[in-house]
Each structure stands twice: as C-alpha cells, then as structure tokens.
Amino acid sequence: MFPAAALFDLDGVLVDTETEYTRIWRDIESHYPTGIDNFALKIKGNTLPRILETYFPAPEVQTDICRMLKEREEAMEYRIFAGVEAFLDELRTHGVPAAIVTSSGVAKMERLFGSLPGFRERFGAVLTDADVTHSKPHPEGYLKAAARLGVKPEECIVFEDSFSGLQAGRSAGAKVVALATTNPYRTLVDKADAVIDSFDGLCLEALLKKL
User: What tens-digit pLDDT sequence spans the chain (211 residues)?
Assistant: First the structure.
C-alpha cells in the first residue's frame, strides 16, 4: 500500500546544500564562538529565529549573522540531488502527493525556486519557517504539511537528514526515512525506519518493503 503523502526536508535531502551550510555556520561560529562542539551540526533542522534567540541573543550580533548568512546564501548554487526528480515522478505516477517542510526562510525559497524552473510545481505544499511557531524537533511542520495535503500524518513518509528532523517526523507519527548525506549511516539506524544513501536508483516499492 502506498503512503498517503511524502514529506521532504529540503537541505541535505532534496538539494545538495548542507556541506556549504556547515561551512557557513562554522565560519559564523568562529566569529562568535558558542563553545559548543560540532555547533554547525547541532543546529541543523532549526529555524534561523530559533538559532539566533538560543545562541546569539545580542541584537547587534544577530544583525551581523543575518548579513553574513544573506551574502553566502545569495551566492549559493542550488543543485538537486541525483535521483530526486525521478523519485518525485514515481510518486506522482502512483498518486502520492509531496510536500517540502523546511526551516529555511521565504526569501531563500524564492531564490531556490527561481533557479530551479519547474521544481516548485512538483509539490502540493511548501512550508517554511514562516509557517511554524516551533522548530524541529517539534512535529508542527510535518503535522501542518499533512493537513495541507488533506492526509493523516501517520499515513505519510518523512524524508530527513538531521537528527532533529527525524525526531520531528517520528513525533508526527509518520514513518521516517533517513538520508545519510549529512550524518554517517551508522548514527541514523536507530533514529529512522529505514536509512538510504541517496535517491539515485531508489524504487518506491522497494523502499516500502523496508518500512
């Protein structure tokens, strides 16, 4: 039986940007040290407002971080991972709607969709940081995405790469598939119903047998 919907994180799942974001946040943290080990990995899945509020409360520091982030994001190249479009096509063939649930902001998403013609049209819903009050690992984003598609979250599959995102998917009641693009495969096994290296060559029916 096919899922009611497929709900996707963006960075590190659909588009190959997490390596660059890790560099960006390591650079930011070198300017404004937090003293937290692996800070750039720890914050993955969090919205920018939550990151700033939690780790950089000083207004002048927040302003400078937003400036640095904006400059780097404007120069960023958005590349869709191999196999993603074919997998989305297979979902559509089987009548399975898709949604994006990202911690990214509206401005970034406008740039991304502007650089990837036709990509936005593949999704029945796109939720950004403007659509939620609570960051991942809270399940709000995935619960809202399921509601927008008119399906039950427990009948959905969530695709994530970050620990906080995987927890959000599980807390929403969905089956979760981890992408080993950001964190090592072995660290994901106990946090997901299935772990895959990529969408390249992935068959929906074969994946469902793992869940």
Answer: 899 999 999 999 999 987 888 889 999 999 999 999 989 888 887 889 989 999 999 999 999 999 999 898 888 889 999 999 999 999 999 999 999 999 999 989 999 999 999 999 999 999 999 999 999 999 999 999 999 999 999 999 999 999 999 999 999 999 999 999 999 999 999 999 999 999 999 999 999 999 9
Q: Helix, strand or coil for residue 194?
A: strand
Q: What is the DSSP letter of 80?
A: B
Q: Which residue has the tokens 């096919």?
A: 2
Residues 169-204 as b or e (16 or more Cβ within 10 Å = b):
bbbbbbbbbbbbbbbeeeebeebbbbbbebbeebeb
Q: Are 146 and 125 in contact (CB under 8 A)?
A: no
Distance CA 44, CA 86 (A): 26
Task: Find the distance separating the first CA and the last CA of the chain, reported in whole Å.
Answer: 11
- Reported pTM: 0.87
